[in-house]
Amino acid sequence: MTSALSITRSVAPPRAAFLDFPLGHTTGKKNQPEMQLNLMRQALAGFEEIDEPGAIRFLDERWSEDESWRQNAMAGGGSKGKESSDDSRTPRVDTPQYQYPADRDEAEKLHHKGACGSCVGAE
Amino acid sequence: MTEDSAAEPVDYIAETRATYDALGYPPYEWVKNEGTPPWTPIRVPLREAKLALAASGGIYQRGQHAFHFKDDASFRVIDTAASCDDLRITHFAYDLTDARADPNVVFPLDPLRALVEAGELGALAPEAFTFMGGIYSARKVREELAPALVERIVDQRPDIALLVPV
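YS: structure for the whole thing
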């Protein structure tokens, strides 16, 4: 499944389902289980129905009537304009970036005695 | 799909090129695979198929190490019976707000489990695999991450595999 049509065309997977939503919503809108289920059903049907290598199925759902989200798509829909010449991209730090500080404590505690086996390549 | 020309899909390759140009950087070299993609038809009906899930949105589970932002080619193994409340998201290249509120928008465990429950999909492989998609080195992905992921996915003996990138 993809929300980036040009990138998927370039990578050319065997089959794909394209959802024309902002990045970060590849499989639907948050807290909308019916929409998520419907989109997944449409996408998986491609396994049985697509018979041409490289075909991309367009999923039938629209993010909003208002199409303005496309204007700031590269900035995650935020206030950062794409015309800016300032490098507003997030620094590429090489230390783990936890969602919550407590996650770090929990991970370090669990890994204190050695590898957990589920963090492959990070231990 | 609408035919409205004002609603063309965002061309992220062109947008990234423009961003790099504005910063004075050389163009980013996107992966471009030529020729006909490899093709394996599904051999069982979807309602009998075991699906393996992989996702690149920076998902990790409580207790696991988070990803870092500098060509992190590691991956996490996540039990597909996991509670979404125990999932966390970290990534530098997209707005995480909605994914953190509901991981199913980038890691669709709940809809897949619902389809299994409804008898429309055979099963979910017991392990899903997640990684940090913002890896600038295509070589590192091709030579390190992808082969390791493929090996683990094949070990699950799935009939189909679903990749959810961001």
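YS: worth flagging: Strands of chain B lie at 50-55, 59-61, 75-79, 87-89, 123-124, 127-131, 160-164.
IM: good catch. Also Residues 46-164 of chain B form one domain.
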